[in-house]
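User: Design a sequence. Structure:
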């Protein structure tokens, strides 16, 4: 994998790990407490950060399937995967889950999961995904960008930059359709609350002391500004100066989503 990409993924993985909502793990483990083995599918598994987070925190024996469209990320993950005695089996599938969702047999899994994945999907995906997962016991999508970030100290152009960033998040991310961007949690919650008890919990990144991370994020903003042929040099200089002087704070709002199949009289409604 590209060195820049690798560095960013490592930086992000640590921040993601610390930001995830821990109550969700408690709820998942409580739900599966009487199961010896659980089967899990990780959508948009990338280089494996969702697996690395969950594998040691889930209490059951685990059978994992990893699904991604990218051969490159999948090969990297495959090469570096670390197993443990709780991991009974794992397999990797190259599938475009936007256009070929039916290729995943969701009935095979107890837990359907993904991280930093929902916001790149098109609006039509959510109903389709729900159709295949009406009976899934647990659906868990972590770290969904929620449309807000803040740098401190403030600058007069902050709001404009946020709007440009959010507009970019809703643009076509190479899939031929507009992405839902910050609306992803609202959309997934809307469909699953019909049959599942749903939770939308906070997983905000607070990287106020992580200046390296802030520089990366600032560079993403710079790229978006340049792509749109806009001029926010004053804002960029101001932000860079504050980061370099270690006088900058940064938070970005994410939400974690959990859906647990509702029971009637202690039985699942299938
Ligand atoms: C932002 S990354 C998240 C990766 C990982 N889950 C994490 O938390 O670091 C999004 C992942 O979705 C994958 N992806 C994008 N479009 C996809 C599609 N249509 N089908 C399957 N995976 C896709 C990308 O290859 C990438 O690995």
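Assistant: Done.
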């Amino acid at each position: 994998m590209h060195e820049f990409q690798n560095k960013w993924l490592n930086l992000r993985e640590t921040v993601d790990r610390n930001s995830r909502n821990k109550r969700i793990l408690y709820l998942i483990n409580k739900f599966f407490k009487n199961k010896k083995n659980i089967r899990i599918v990780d959508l948009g598994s990338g280089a494996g950060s969702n697996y690395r987070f969950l594998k040691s925190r889930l209490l059951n024996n685990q059978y994992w399937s990893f699904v991604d469209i990218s051969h490159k990320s999948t090969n990297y993950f495959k090469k570096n995967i670390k197993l443990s005695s709780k991991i009974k089996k794992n397999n990797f599938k190259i599938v475009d889950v936007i256009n070929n969702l039916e290729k995943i047999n969701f009935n095979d899994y107890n837990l359907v999961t993904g991280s930093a994945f929902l916001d790149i999907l098109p609006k039509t995906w959510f109903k389709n995904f729900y159709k295949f997962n009406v009976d899934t016991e647990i659906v868990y999508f972590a770290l969904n960008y929620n449309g807000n970030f803040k740098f401190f100290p403030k600058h007069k152009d902050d709001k404009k930059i946020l709007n440009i960033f959010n507009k970019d998040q809703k643009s076509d991310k190479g899939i031929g359709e507009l992405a839902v961007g910050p609306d992803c949690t609202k959309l997934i919650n809307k469909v699953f609350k019909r049959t599942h008890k749903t939770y939308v919990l906070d997983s905000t990144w607070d990287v106020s002391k992580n200046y390296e991370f802030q520089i990366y994020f600032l560079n993403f903003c710079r790229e978006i500004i340049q792509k749109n042929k806009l001029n926010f040099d004053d804002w960029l200089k101001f932000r860079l100066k504050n980061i370099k002087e270690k006088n900058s704070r940064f938070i970005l709002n994410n939400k974690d989503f959990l859906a647990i199949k509702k029971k009637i009289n202690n039985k699942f409604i299938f």
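The radius of gyration is 19 Å. The mean pLDDT is 95.
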